[in-house]
Write a structure and sequence with these properties.
TetR/AcrR family transcriptional regulator, transcription, about 65% helix, DNA-binding transcription factor activity, Tetracycline Repressor, domain 2, transcription cis-regulatory region binding
Length: about 210
């Protein structure tokens, strides 16, 4: 992951990976005989890192931020993290690398599936038409990929990515509003006691 983020695909070699891992080339090749086998294993690890990072971060949010805005903020943080940038580097490099392409052909779909499964756990019953949430998340995913590419270049020096994210959160809040506090229990009406005819001097039952 460090090599992909710092050196890119072209600068990542098994020799450099072994050096950073503090193992010999022989030990590295024993577990991962080729660079592509190593990359395939790293890809699985990175996908799991992304899922755990998102779920763990959401779990420690204060209750008032456990809403769709908080979820989008966290997703944006995940997209700017090292695992996401390493995956993005693989996806971009696979476009022109025939050996890497088969490993990464379904990479975007797998990342999207992680996001969708996590979203459904966090917001299990949105009152939306069938198929709306997957399509919406696909659009958010595509947008975040583009934003994160630009962020990797300028770190949002002009605030444009933050402005886009703010607008997206405003729209998302309209689609999936906060559940709000639970409704207050209804007041129970208790009728006054019925007067006792034998003791109430104002009660006349003589007809």
């Amino acid at each position: 992951m460090q090599c992909l983020v710092e050196l890119g695909w072209s600068g990542t070699s098994t020799t450099e990976v072994a050096r950073r891992a503090g193992v010999s080339r022989g030990a590295q090749q024993h577990h991962y005989p080729t660079k592509m086998i190593l990359v395939a294993a790293a890809l699985e690890h990175l996908l799991e890192r992304q899922r755990l990072a998102y779920e763990s971060a959401f779990a420690v949010l204060p209750p008032e931020r456990r809403n769709v805005e908080g979820a989008l903020d966290l997703l944006w943080e995940v997209f700017r993290g090292s695992p996401a940038r390493a995956l993005m580097e693989l996806a971009v490099a696979a476009r022109t690398d025939d050996e890497l392409k088969p490993i990464c052909s379904n990479l975007n779909e797998r990342i999207l599936q992680v996001i969708l499964e996590t979203f459904e756990r966090l917001f299990p019953k949105p009152d939306l038409p069938d198929g709306f949430v997957p399509t919406m998340l696909r659009g958010v995913f595509a947008m975040f990929v583009g934003l994160s590419l630009q962020n990797a270049l300028d770190d949002d020096a002009e605030g444009h990515q933050e402005a886009v994210l703010t607008q997206v959160k405003s729209v998302a809040r309209l689609i999936i509003p906060d559940p709000g506090p639970p409704p207050a229990p209804e007041a129970v009406f208790t009728p006054p006691p019925t007067p006792d005819a034998d003791t109430d001097p104002d009660t006349d039952i003589s007809g």
